[in-house]
């Protein structure tokens, strides 16, 4: 019975179209790897998909690298957002997306070959309209694994409360939900990802899906682990109490906010 249900969900005529959205600001060192990882993550997905890279006023070679990728891979599309900010870039990608589902990844996010198939199949089976993913570190040291394990535990514990949390490096939502909640908050410096899933949960069915992704630890290293953990704990507390972290600044690579 369960096997037939899985086969039904894998019918390419019934699987929804998916738009993978990748914001990119001065990501010439990792954007090609990130796009190829996203392509790899669609390998077993039988439905339609597109990968939208939003160049966010990059001053390096990001735009030209993606431009070359669009020539080799017709599923890859390149957009530009001239207002700087990761939320602006994500919202731009969503505005031009043609998929029923939006999968937000970062330029340095890495996913497995069955990521899209497993994630969308689970969301369809459970009637989920928004979801987040557990993270694994790209550098699997004991401290890195412990740090993300703690975050994953909190994320799993809070998924059924009114204050869920998430990592913006891997969030999925139906486009209609994204539009309903007004997209990512462009006024937030840090925690816009948790704010996003909190707003989504106010209007839609949300959960943490089983398929993990690989999180690049560079942004943690850029500020130092102690400082990053302290800021993360402060953000958790602020989010749980006030559902907002607008005054907290966390530096993306190259000061990307």
Automatic annotation (TrEMBL):
Localization per record: Cell membrane
One Pfam family hit: Glycos_transf_2
Residues of the Glycosyltransferase 2-like domain: 19-136
Primary site of residence: membrane
Keywords, ordered alphabetically: Cell membrane, Glycosyltransferase, Membrane, Transferase
MF GO annotations: glycosyltransferase activity
GO cellular component: plasma membrane
Entry keyword annotation includes Cell membrane: yes
InterPro entries: Glyco_trans_2-like, Nucleotide-diphossugar_trans
Protein name, UniProt field: Glycosyltransferase 2-like domain-containing protein
Native source organism of the sequence: Candidatus Abawacabacteria bacterium RBG_16_42_10
